[in-house]
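Re: [ENG-882] Designed sequences occasionally contain unexpected residues at chain ends

Forwarding the minimal case from QA. Structure tokens:
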């Protein structure tokens, strides 16, 4: 079963782009386990996004993974500890992930998730 870590913008995708995150992940992986790092919850609570509250509710349905680091480092820490891919469209995070050998799942055409090559 594929494990995926959801970053902040992954949790906002369903509300900003009207896509079904669970359905898209199921299309890619069949069965999957999704995790939300603790720092992502904090980031959503502090976010000024009009969709942050809905994204927090969505995050509640996934497993939480506590990390010792914050921000992008927390997302990377979770992904490496879980041997998981990260769902994100954050270009800076994706660059860091490539350096660490962590694979990204990203949104294409505002509708579909794909594994970054």
């Amino acid at each position: 079963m594929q494990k995926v870590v959801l970053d902040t913008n992954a949790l906002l995708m369903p509300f900003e782009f009207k896509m079904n995150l669970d359905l898209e992940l199921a299309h890619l992986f069949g069965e999957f386990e999704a995790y939300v790092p603790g720092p992502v919850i904090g980031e959503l609570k502090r976010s000024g996004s009009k969709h942050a509250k809905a994204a927090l509710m969505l995050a509640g349905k996934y497993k939480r993974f506590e990390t010792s680091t914050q921000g992008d480092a927390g997302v990377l820490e979770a992904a490496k500890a879980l041997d998981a891919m990260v769902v994100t469209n954050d270009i800076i995070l994706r660059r860091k992930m490539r350096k660490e050998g962590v694979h990204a799942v990203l949104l294409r055409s505002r509708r579909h998730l794909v594994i970054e090559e």
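QA comment: On inspection the terminal residues look reasonable. The two ends are 20 Å apart (CA to CA). Proposing we downgrade this to a documentation issue.
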